[in-house]
TrEMBL record:
InterPro entries: ND/Mrp_TM. The chain crosses the membrane at residues 31-61, 68-87, 99-118, 130-152, 158-180, 192-214, 220-241, 248-271, 283-303, 350-377, 397-418. Pfam families: Proton_antipo_M. GO terms for cellular component: membrane. It is found in: Membrane. Residues 156-369 form the NADH:quinone oxidoreductase/Mrp antiporter transmembrane domain. This is NADH-quinone oxidoreductase, subunit N. It comes from the Archaea. Keywords: Membrane, Transmembrane, Transmembrane helix. It is a multi-pass membrane protein. It comes from Thermoproteus uzoniensis (strain 768-20).
Amino acid sequence: MIDPFFLVVLAFAALAPLALKVDGRYLAAAMGIAVFAMAFFVPEAAFFFTLLGVVAIAFALDWPYGGLGFALGLSATSTALAAYAYYRVVAAPQQAVYYAFAGLAALAVSTASIYGLLASGRERENVEGALKYLIFSAVGKTLMVLGFPLALYVSPTLGWVVLAIGFIFELGLVPAHLWMVDAFALSTPRGVAALTIFGELTPLLVLLTLLNVVPMAKPAAFALLVASLASMTFANVAGLTARTFGRILAYSSIAHMSYAVAAAALVFYFGNKFVSLPLVGNMSAFSVASLVIVLEGLTSGLGKAGIFGALTVKHADTVPERRVLSNAVNVLSLLGLPPLLGFWPKLLLILLSLALGQAGVAVLVILNSALATPYYLRVFRQIVEAAGPSADNATSVLTSTLAVVLGVAAPLLLAALIP
């Protein structure tokens, strides 16, 4: 059998003359896709092919957008790498450890690019907010890199306690939450948009990846459950008292990450058992928690990417200077209004809590959702009453469209996923 890698090299050699006629970004994108595909043909070197592929695709964005395009492409492709690692861990359990380290590597790849986007305004405040992200995120990632081998080879309890602290730092949960508030308030809007979708979704995917390799120890699950419940309550109360745009949405992100972490902690503290829920039928509690985590990450990321992506100011912590009506949909999705995307993860978390016999947790999630309503309505009002004509852009329209489409299609997608 001919080595497929040889065929790819031969194909690129034959097409090399096209470099004289074809825009380089298209060749870079094609090379990235081809190298990425090699991961499926050569499993023993899948991580290296995947990493090279996503970097090449990121380079393809460098031509039209310069360094910022490369940073944005690299942060996006690092999330794709984390999603790929999660998929491979589920599909190929015999290689789970290998892909878990690939997920951790993806998390590291995203740090520098998001830092660059946060500081891209180059003002003192931009750099200050970016540095706070870099420092706290570095602490979180270091703890994860230390904790996973500990959980795998030494002690699951000790390893997962270290990992739990790492995720608290990385996701900005209480008490390690102040960096997120400052990063949102001081950094550039485009950087905050990248942080909310790529900087939040990537660690959530890594959390799911690690949970599939080494189940969370009960002491760590208890600590994360307490931290997440306290964090969501604190964030929603603080959101009520916050007055500036960026800080309100920073507390919103802390609350959304708390909901996601609470789902995982619930399952591993009270036991991963089969549950029967309306809409999703019979499935394991961990599968429901996985849906909550992914949907929360998408809700928070898409909604805030649309909101901040429409700002043209130097600091994200400001009232919108122009009316972007599509972002009104994004705010309502963050609020959890049915049938938008943000409604489903909260509903599934409440149903999961009830199925595990934890009515108190379900009530707390409901109370937190109600508590968040006033500050989301304040943000909604700031968006629809902004001065000037409507100035919807591609990012806000795309994210709001996805919030509607994914929200309406969620029951059908869930029904298709459940056997």
